[in-house]
Write a structure and sequence with these properties.
The chain is an alpha+beta fold. The protein is built from two helices and six strands; from the N terminus they run αβββββαβ. A hairpin with a 4-residue loop joins strand 4 and strand 5.
């Protein structure tokens, strides 16, 4: 499902690497901006950075590195600002204090984040 959500937000990510910003606001108050930036494109994969911009000062700013597999039509989180390359399952407790299903939780978070932006987001710049 994350692949389908990303393709709705960045349909030309393979042909035209770009940055897209989706704003989330309440009335006139900007709550944050989801930035999707294509970092790398290959014949069968793309790598994106998905990050929050213009966030509340007291809120940690999420930043995820996402690998998109076009041939398999799937996407997965492969890194965050604090870690890269996750194991499928971690023993618990562990030295890094990862949750046993850390990778699954990150991919669920990405899905909820993208779904919220698709449902409630709008273009940051006015369409001309």
């Amino acid at each position: 499902l994350n692949y389908a959500r990303l393709m709705q937000l960045l349909p030309a990510m393979r042909d035209n690497p770009q940055v897209r910003r989706v704003a989330l606001s309440q009335g006139e108050h900007l709550l944050g901006v989801l930035a999707l930036e294509v970092l790398e494109t290959c014949p069968y994969t793309s790598t994106l950075e998905v990050r929050q911009e213009h966030s509340l000062s007291w809120l940690p700013v999420p930043r995820l590195e996402v690998r998109v597999y076009h041939d398999a039509r799937m996407a997965e989180v492969v890194g965050t600002q604090s870690a890269r390359r996750f194991h499928g399952i971690y023993p618990y407790p562990n030295a890094a204090m990862h949750q046993p299903d850390e990778k699954t939780q990150l991919n669920l978070f990405l899905g909820e984040w993208l779904s919220h932006c698709l449902a409630c987001g709008h273009e940051l710049e006015p369409v001309r």
